[in-house]
Amino acid sequence: MADFLQLLVAGLATGAIYALAAIGFTLLWQTSQTINFAQGEFVMLPAFLALIAMNLGAPFPLAALIAILGAMVILGLTFKLAIVDPLIKSGPLPLVISTIGVGLLLKDGVKEFYSAEAQPFPKVFPETPFSLGGANFTYAQIAVLGVALAVIMALNWFLAGTRTGRQMQASAQNPTVARILGINVNRMIFYTFLINAILAAVASLLIAPSQFAKFSQGEQLGLAAFVAAIVGGFNQVRGAIVGGLVVGVADNFAPTLLSAAGLSSAYRQALPLFLLVLIILFRPQGLVGRKEERAI
Amino acid sequence: MLRTVSFALVAGLGLATSAMAQDTIKIPNIIELSGAGATVGTNWKNGSSMAVDEINAAGGILGKKIEMVFIDSASDPGKARVGIQRALDDTPIAIFGPIYSGSVSATLKLTEEAQVPQIIGGEAANLTAQGSKYIFRTSFGQNVSMPKIANYLRDGVKAKTVAVVYVNNDFGKGGRNAIIKELEARQIKVVADVSTEAGQADFAADVVKVKGANADAVFVYTNEEESARFLIEARKQGIDKPLIGETTLLGQKVIDLAKDAANGAKGHVGLTVDAAIPAVQEFGRKFQAKYNYKSDHNGMKGYIAPYMIKAAAEKAGKLDAKAIADALRGLTITPDKTPGILIEATWDETGEIDRISFLAEIKDGKQIITETLPKLKK
After folding, report:
1. C or N: which end of chain A has fewer Cβ atoms within 10 Å?
2. Which DSSP letter does residue A233 get?
3. What domains are there in chain A, each with its CATH number?
4. End-to-end C-alpha distance for chain A, whole angstroms
């Protein structure tokens, strides 16, 4: 039971970070039919922006703020204006390919101009340990889970409980009708890019203390988030949340499940992909997604 | 007139370049400058560059200056193979790298066929067992280091049961096979055998498995970043059994990344700048001053590589790849004649290295040497 609890909490903490990144996939897809294959690199970059700020003498809280603002400018504003807007007219495929290019640019840029080595990152929360139900946790682990879930809840409240949020939903569901109703659809789309950048920055600052900052970190994160978005349901924010948590928990329980099945834990990395194949085969709309529906 | 002057200039430049080229020997380094092995490759590059600067300042090797060429294998055996294939086209006197065992394994036949000495950083036991007469280690193979670790687990830690955690690549699998064989030979039971992945980010499940095995000690054999992540998770979950490793676990990068979580880790280290040997400590100071961080064992491996070639070339009396390889086999290089070798080392006919090594422990974020182990063959 203690092991179950240990793995569950660890899986949820990692899964909540995957969910933050996965939400970005769904947001951009719903509002601008963009599948952003640079999403992993979007999560990698803000940690380095924070490290650069700290190297220049900024204390961590200020560096974190700079990272979030920097992400909004680079990954929100610039990405939208320089990549998405010119290419969206040509259809989704050129845009998808260009996001792969953006990912490579960010990855190699950090490698070239900062370092190819993993960088230690300041602890955001205290690593004080405590026991519960026979399992050992740290306050940092619980805080990471708490902050990630709080950000997700705040996003849900924003989308459902504010006028701007509902305008964004209307723009995603039916842009033509939204325009007729006087909603500035372009501005709503721009907001989703900003929100995606903020979510990526938060995920980056939460994951870097335990997994370090590294230029290639985005490969694994991006894949996990993409799988999470599909498993949960690509056309729903709630799908990304469920998918993220499912992938995080499945990854943590994988060695135990594999060992019970008499298989080597070397197959661990294959398990989320196996889950992906099953979902695509038997429930292509995802666990909580709906067919032909688009909502954020 | 203008055409004549231009021709004379171009011809003059050509002659000058040709003369410069004849005074310089290029040594290609095919190493892990990005990907999972970026830390090891960067350390090697800095160490070997520092040694070459010193050798060139002292007149080079047999009167020729050395020029290092660095080719990034991206920690990928396929890219390493392509890099070495291309480098061999220029008939170099030696090839440095790779450091990852999988990449060495994929390339050693190429240098064997070309009869060019390959100075490697790889530690997998099987590398020197594949029959090549042209690979030479800069650090112990697992066939040498694992018996030392197994002795330490039996005599120092008094472990009757051990959990083995390894990384699922050539380096990790080689170490896992070697340590299990040595532990069984000493009647130490392996109660958990945990495979992890290169680049793995989350070790919660692996630590749960190790904890459940309740072994007397945990042997951790993963690369730098993964070692740091494992240590952090092990401390988080309250593992209080000795965490034992071989060189990497006690490396400076692991200490930098894991911080307090690295304290208490123990094990065997083949090379360390913390060894109480004046030449080694002097190297450590120079490296720190030049690169502003503390070298790990890979920095030292990179540093001794050019000095190996220097000593062998001087013994052979010529800058010829095959002659250098022949001279290296059975050679003992001593610091009194070649200070850059740092610690006396001997290479056998298979390219295996023998020299003293150390038992160490991490205390207060520093590696402390607790014992010096002698060379295997006096």
Report:
1. N
2. -
3. 2-282 (1.10.3470)
4. 37
Residue ranges making up the domain that contains B55: 7-140+277-347
Residues of A in contact with B36 (CB under 8 A): 216
Question: pLDDT (tens digit, 9 = 90+) per residue, A66-86?
Answer: 999 999 999 999 999 999 999
The answer to whether residue B296 sits within a structural domain is yes
Residue B131 lies in a domain: yes
Number of separate domains in chain B: 2
**Contact, A234 vs A26, CB < 8 A?**
yes
**Angle separating helix axes A2-32 and B204-213, nearest 10 degrees:** 170
The ipTM assigned to this model is 0.85
A90 within 8 A of A84, measured Cβ to Cβ: no
Quick check: B209 and A256 CB within 8 A? yes
CB contact under 8 A, B208 and A256: yes
3-state secondary structure chain B: CHHHHHHHHHHHHHHHHHHHHHCEEEEEEEECCCHHHHHHHHHHHHHHHHHHHHHHHCCCECCEEEEEEEEECCCCHHHHHHHHHHHHCCCCCCEECCCCHHHHHHHHHHHHHHCCCEEECCCCHHHHHCCCCCEEECCCCHHHHHHHHHHHHHHHCCCCEEEEEEECCHHHHHHHHHHHHHHHHCCCEEEEEEEECCCCCCCHHHHHHHHHHCCCEEEEECCHHHHHHHHHHHHHCCCCCCEEEECHHHCHHHHHHHHHHHCCCEEEECCCCCCCCHHHHHHHHHHHHHHCCCCCHHHHHHHHHHHHHHHHHHHHCCCCHHHHHHHHCCCEECCCCCHHHCCCEEECCCCCEECCEEEEEEECCEEEEEEEECCCCC
List phi, psi (to 5°) of B43: -65, -45
Tens digit of pLDDT for each residue in B42-61?
Answer: 999 999 999 999 999 999 99
A-B contacts (CB, under 8 Å): 95
Tokens read off for B136: 């030479």
| Structural domain includes residue B1 | no
Task: Report which secondary-structure segment, H or E, holds A130.
Answer: strand A129-132
State the smallest CA–CA distance between residue A113 and chain B in angstroms: 13
Q: Do B333 and B313 touch, CB atoms closer than 8 A?
A: no
Average pLDDT over residues B163-192: 94
Q: Mean pLDDT across the stretch B69-94?
A: 95
Question: Does one domain contain both B66 and B204?
Answer: no
For residues B245 and B367, membership in a common domain is answered with yes
Note whether residue B2 is domain-resident. Answer: no
Shortest alpha-carbon distance between residue A267 and chain B (Å)? 9
**Does residue B15 carry a pLDDT above 90?**
no
Spatial CA neighbour of B307 closest among B290, B324, B285, B326: B324
Which residues in B lie closer than 8 A to residue A254 (C-beta atoms)?
A: 205
Cβ B44 vs Cβ B29: under 8 Å? yes
CA dihedral B152, B153, B158, B161 (to 10 degrees): -170
Q: Supply B7's token pair.
A: 């021709």
Using N-to-C axis directions, what is the helix angle for B297-316 and B38-57, rounded to 10°?
40
Ranges under pLDDT 50 in chain A = none
CA pseudo-torsion sign B355, B176, B167, B162: negative
Q: Which two tokens stand for residue B14?
A: 């050509």
Find the closest chain A residue to B260 by CA distance: A127
User: Do residues A31 and A168 touch, judged by C-beta distance below 8 A?
Assistant: yes
Angstrom distances, CA of residue B20 to CA of A211, B66, B94, B129, B338 = 48, 11, 20, 40, 27
Q: How many CA atoms lie within 13 A of B8 on its CB side?
A: 5
Q: Return d(Cα B195, Cα B43) in angstroms, integer.
A: 26
